[in-house]
Design brief:
This protein is mostly helical. It has 6 helices and 4 strands, in the order E-E-H-E-H-H-E-H-H-H. Helix 1 runs parallel beside helix 3. The termini are far apart.
Length: 176
């Protein structure tokens, strides 16, 4: 999941999710996160849900987001995690794992956004996992780009912000 515009004015936010199975794989995909909540956490959970729903055989989910990884692991262990946000997605995921058999799924953690120094010391397996994660991140960014707000709204918001800052500066000068 990715939310390059996940902060600030909610009307300007965009978030996307993506799944990556390997270079040129026909199941690689990306999409914009739907609904009013558009942040990186929801995008990550949405990606995990689609993975669970689309799985056609034993699968491993490579997660760089600890929040998502921990909760998916708890569900796979047969526990019900404490869910405060994105309940709609988590409950659908629980049902998907129950229907398809929790034993057919596995989740592993991969470090994200590694430095060049870390990349130099990684094993072959760690490099493969990092490359898969980077592919998923690229897909998620493409998904977020599908959901860009209209340019007119962005321009209006920037103009309103500039006016607000100018008014604040003027009031500070008046008071001081």
């Amino acid at each position: 999941g990715a939310a390059p515009n996940g902060q600030g004015d909610f009307r300007l936010r965009s978030a996307g999710s993506g799944l990556y199975y390997g270079p040129g794989h026909s199941h690689n995909c990306n999409w914009a996160v739907e609904g009013n909540v558009k942040n990186a956490q929801r995008a990550e959970v949405r990606a995990a849900l689609r993975w669970a729903l689309w799985a056609w055989c034993r699968q491993i989910y490579i997660a760089d987001n600890e929040y998502t990884r921990q909760r998916v692991q708890k569900i796979l262990d047969g526990e019900t995690p404490k869910i405060k946000t994105h309940k709609d997605l988590w409950y659908r995921m629980i049902r998907a794992f129950q229907a398809k058999g929790r034993e057919n799924f596995r989740v592993i953690k991969v470090a994200s956004h590694q430095t060049e120094e870390q990349k130099k010391t990684e094993t072959k397996k760690q490099r493969k996992l990092r490359e898969m994660n980077e592919g998923a991140d690229d897909q998620a960014v493409k998904g977020a780009q599908r959901d860009q707000p209209p340019l007119q709204l962005v321009v209006e918001r920037q103009r309103a912000r500039a006016i607000g800052l100018a008014v604040q500066k003027m009031l500070i000068r008046v008071v001081c």
